[in-house]
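Recall that a protein's primary structure is simply its ordered list of amino acids. Everything else, from secondary elements to tertiary packing, is in principle encoded there. The following example makes that idea concrete.
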Amino acid sequence: MHDLESRIAEWRATFAVAPGVGCETLDELESHLRETMDRLVDSGMTETEAFRIAVAQLGSLRTIASEFGKLDPPTWLPVKMVTGLGCPATLALAVFLGIRFGGRGPDLLLGVHVFAVTTGYLTALLIGGLGICFVCQNCFSDFSRARLQSIRQASFVLGSLAAGLTALAIVLGAVWAKLEWGRFWGWDPKETAGLGVLVWLLLFLAAHRLRGSTVRGVLLLGIAGNMIVMLAWFGVNLAAGRHGYGTSQGLMLAAGMTANLAFLLAGFAPAGCLRSGKT
């Protein structure tokens, strides 16, 4: 019996490296393997023969990985949605700002600045959105290694894009301020908030490169980044009492901050904590 358990453990370790096969899937495969072995042993076979035949019936590592790859493609649905919706939204924003800030010189410079800061902040919020989707799914099921790698890569690309756009917005804003106000930087609350978002995004990207960092860890940082961007984008205007920002906007900001904080805390729960039938 000890020898059989060792063989099953070795078989499980071999399949654990297959793309698209997570812990939950491994549990199901092992359960199926053991059920097949029990039937074969009841028919009169030895445990060694039953194990060999059950493994053969289950299929090779390549076959099973291929089948699960079809059912669980590496590219995550929320990542596809971000890509599919982000591109046309960016184009629409560019057209709108082109009409509003049409012309040359300072107006065109200001328009490009607004486009860069808006798309940069929105991209940062999309990272947090991916983090929220990750927390929700992680409460019910685990992720395959291939999918985790895909999500990690997508969050890094989005973070790089957000950081680049935010940095461009800061530079263009400084140039515009020099042309209009005679100075590059005045520590205006919006300027300071933009710099804070850029620093945060750079730290987020650095977290991807830390040894031992996990996908869940970086995506939880993305949710925290949501709150930072919301404060920089809306909180500054609210605190300054700018036109159009009043009590209702303050309540919406507070609700958004609370919701993101709740998802952030939920992200520390064990994977599959809400799985149906979990013992």
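The chain has a mean pLDDT of 82. DSSP finds ten helices and no strands in the chain.
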